[in-house]
Amino acid sequence: MPELDILIIGAGPTGLTLALELAAQPTPPSIRIIEADPLRSDKSRAFVLHPRTLELLARHISHSPSIIENFIEKGRFNDAIQIFVKRGFVKELNFEEGMVSDCQFKNSLMISQADTEGVIEGALEGFGVCVDRGVRAESVREEGEGVVAVLKIAEEGGEREEEVRCKYVVGCDGAHSVVRKAAGMKFEGGVYPQDFILADVRMKWEQRACLSFYLGNGFLGVFPLPDGIFRLIVSRAKDKGKADEPTFEDFQDAVDEFVPGKTEIYDPVWITRFRLHHRIVDCYRKGRCFVAGDAAHIHSPAGGQGMNTGMQDAVNLAWKLASVLRGQSSDALLDTYDEERRKVGVKLLNGTDRAFEMMATSNPVWLFLRNALIPWVVPWAMSNQAMVQQRFRFISQLGIRYRQSSIVGQASTWNGALRGGDRAPDGELKGPGGPISVLGLCTGVGFHLLLFSGIGDNAVNDQRLDEVGSDFRKNGHDSVKYHKILATGIAGNNTSVDEDSKVHESYGFSEPGYILMRPDGYISFLGTLNTLDELKIWANK
């Protein structure tokens, strides 16, 4: 018999997020999370949490009330991007200027990966789950109705071996994943030709402290981190040997070459060199083995997508594993993890590839064309608000949706803009205790049923919505929380008021309607209230 429900291999942001999502379940599965490194790294590594990731983490305030405050305290929001070509200023894009209206987080949070891991691990420990450090997976194999993992546990004077049996194993163990290799998954892609050097430093300069890209005979990216630290990423000069370690002087030379005005860097915290890969696994699931995060996909750093994508892999997978282990869903639900998330991975890989190749090209012809065209193209593109918002939704990951998924849908008569598989937009409501957001109602890791009264003469009253919600729960869905949203009335128990009707409008409800929201904040099914029978049929599949 398996000793565990789920073994999580790897305690980076993806593995920790998966563990937190599972530990927060009403009936949590038995889990163990292991990490080969004996200590959590203090290096910043990945350094941004995007609005969609912050939204998903905010679901945990019901059991970890300070989780978002802890992230914000250790990070800093980036409110603009600046672009320079050959030391000349091209354009600044300010994120405060109406970029997004349906999310409480308007900007991305610049935060060290070490701090991201620390906050999630702290929330996880609140459930009594601790990372088992100094434990590496030697091998993984499926056997009977489970998986056998051979672990090597670091001890004074050597290692001891332990064999663990579990129902499922999830490899969050990075680009060299043991789980991926053991499951026979292909990791398709390649290596970018460019070499890069990286430094975390302090700076004295004349420029605004925001995300900045400097283009010329190469590339310099400046990324403001908390505590006065700046990350510098520089395309490596061709006359440098690939094996040469970067020096502090290499970065001062790059700053002098690319940044206008007098700039001094000092107090280096971390200096390293690296090459970048772009790869994606051919399947996120093989039998009882799953991969997530860098074990499933590795990207260029363009847009800071990698860590955020991995954390959202974890959110998608966790509720499905929990539902199957509770006996509420069949094994087929687990196939939708690959169905939904691999498409996201491919799209992000292609999008970051194009952006990165343009920014970091070392081809002399493309360098000339890039530097000549960007001063003209970028101001034009950034003056198109619709284009800018579309790009922001891609980078922020607010635009991710699963419309083609086999487990989402909408009523047959539904003709609104939203569809099953779309992210549920946020918006402000009036609750009994004051302002509250739509997603603020939907905390925790379960399903939620949003019931809209409708507007004007079409509206139904609070009592009717209570009848609908109670009937749905009695119909085999007692774990689903329902929330009533009235266009007019008085906020009360389980009732919020949409005083300006903007939330009704954003969801497309002039008539009374409903949204069944998945645990990961995406729409499972929606329709007007007169199609409730279709919702019941859908929910009972």
From TrEMBL:
Give the domain of life. Eukaryota
What cofactor is this protein dependent on?
FAD
* Keyword Flavoprotein recorded: yes
Keyword Iron in annotation: no
Q: Which residues form the Phenol hydroxylase-like C-terminal dimerisation domain?
A: 472-536
Q: Which InterPro entries match?
A: FAD-bd, FAD/NAD-bd_sf, Phe_hydrox_C_dim_dom, RIFMO-like
* FAD-binding domain ranges (all copies): 4-349
Print the keywords alphabetically: FAD, Flavoprotein, Oxidoreductase
Q: Which GO terms describe its molecular function?
A: FAD binding; oxidoreductase activity, acting on paired donors, with incorporation or reduction of molecular oxygen, NAD(P)H as one donor, and incorporation of one atom of oxygen
What is the protein named? Uncharacterized protein
